[in-house]
């Protein structure tokens, strides 16, 4: 599908049908998110796929009454890492060294540069940075889902601490950033037929 046509097609689904996304489509969408841009390539987040009806039911209590969490094909959750520091940099440098056949010693300057940047950041600043990176992946996920005609509803209206507790994220050094139910729109979802409202070109774009 043409990308502009796909972006006009997508909207934040209010009601999902019972139709499930097949495994191939799901894997393609997850790969699209995995290949998203990220500062320094560090990808300081993980993508959780929640299919369990029991877990989603428990999450409902922390979803501000939004039952799409339970009534969708899959619930995707982007969770930012809480342990931003040398370990995440070292892990990436090892992967970079292996993938491009570059000795780790040749990457020392790049590694030191990133670590020095983190050293001058507060813990809150590092956490904010990790959340921002997760949102980049969300944007890519939403666009790719639209091209694949998979419906989505990105949601920030939830209780992160409740999600973290239900999912056991603290033990994984993660915290919930944003959630996104995916699936197929219900034919009775009236929002699907509403005119899309966006700023026009002159309101949005500034040329200098």
Topology:
Blueprint: H1 3-9, H2 23-34, E1 45-50, H3 53-60, E2 74-81, H4 86-100, H5 108-119, H6 123-147, E3 151-152, H7 160-167, E4 174-183, H8 201-204
Antiparallel strand pairs: 1-2, 2-4, 3-4
Helix pairs in contact: 2-6
Mean pLDDT: 96
Sheet of most strands: 4 strands, antiparallel
What distance lies between the first and last C-alpha atoms, to the nearest angstrom?
32 Å
What order do the strands of the largest sheet run in, or round the barrel if closed?
1-2-4-3
CATH class: Alpha Beta
Gyration radius, to the nearest Å? Answer: 19 Å
Tertiary shape: globular
Any guess at the CATH architecture? Answer: 3-Layer(aba) Sandwich
**Helical run tally:** 8
The secondary-structure element order is: HHEHEHHHEHEH
Classify the helix fraction into a percent range: 40-55%
Describe the 3D structure.
The chain has 208 residues and is of the alpha+beta class. It has a single domain, classed as NADH Oxidase (3-Layer(aba) Sandwich). 44% of the residues lie in helices and 12% in strands. The protein is built from eight helices and four strands. The chain has helices at 3-9, 23-34, 53-60, 86-100, 108-119, 123-147, 160-167, 201-204; strands at 45-50, 74-81, 151-152, 174-183. Strands 1-2-4-3 form a four-stranded antiparallel sheet, with helices on both faces. α2 (23-34) crosses α6. It is globular.
Which characteristics define this entry?
alpha+beta; NADH Oxidase; 4-stranded antiparallel β-sheet; 8 helices; 44% helix; globular
